[in-house]
Amino acid sequence: MTVRALSSVLRKKAEEEVNETPNVADAAIAQLRDWLHQKPHLRAAKIPDQWLIAFLRGSKFNINKAQEKLDTYYTLKTIAPEIAANRHPFDASIQEILKIGFFLPLRKCSTDTSPRTCLVRVAAFNGTKHSLTDLIKVALMIIEILLIEDDNFTICGEEAIVDVKNLGFGIISQWTPTLAKKVVTCAEKSLSVRLKSMHVLNAGKGLKAALQLFKLFLGSKMKTRIHLYHKDYEKMYRTVDKSILPVEYGGTDGHIQDLIDHWKMKVETYSDWYAQHDSIRPDESKSSDAKNSANVLGIVNCFKKLDID
């Protein structure tokens, strides 16, 4: 098994948080390998152990759940290609999103066992210039890198800081129920993102409709982890250490442009990875257990149920 060694504190955290021990990890990866060999579209794929353990951690080492997440991940490339496939880092549209820094994981964690904090700069979005699906695609591309490289992310989870300053109709009009469901499916049911908390900054009246659609597809536990702030960030600083934040958000760890430059270069180095994994898709005409969009997304007409808890 080729999996990065954990520090002693993360090893303890992994056992407490996701039920991982070295013996459990070895056995679980072996089981996933056996399962992969039974899947026509996955049998020949070059899938590293580090990728598999990310899905196992996201499933708390429940083998069936990990299999379901992997299957959903590759199925989404067929049924949601606008956000899950055709990922070419040097395409003009993706380069544009990388340059504005929409999704930026921070360089430090508050402690050795803290979640990875990710800055989501909705404020950088220009509704007349950018496509929301491109922004989401790039965010998911970066999340894949975190799944491979960041043990804090896969074991301790994610803490999101979402800046919605100057949120306008341009982005809200593109945030449809179907897209909302696809995003939640990617994050929760395939990429195993374990969101510990979400801090929404500069939240004004225009946020309500978009937040309704997003919260609609979240579980009751997750709904309680979303916190809104207008212009006063002091409450957020009680749980988010200033030392990990960029200067622009009251912190001391460099500037946003430093993060933009880092993640642009990092995504570009993963060009071969994206190409390889975009080519792995189920053949629904041959695979007896291939999924369709209705099965994976489970989209229902639920406008009448819109409500804020």
TrEMBL record:
Give the record's GO CC terms.
membrane
Q: Show the PANTHER family listed in the entry.
A: ALPHA-TOCOPHEROL TRANSFER PROTEIN-RELATED, CRAL-TRIO DOMAIN-CONTAINING PROTEIN-RELATED
> InterPro entries recorded for this chain?
CRAL-TRIO_dom, CRAL-TRIO_dom_sf, CRAL/TRIO_N_dom, CRAL/TRIO_N_dom_sf
An example Gene Ontology molecular-function term: phosphatidylinositol bisphosphate binding
Q: What protein name does the entry list?
A: CRAL-TRIO domain-containing protein
Q: Which organism is it from?
A: Manduca sexta (Tobacco hawkmoth)
Report domain CRAL-TRIO positions: 90-257
Q: Which CDD domains match?
A: SEC14
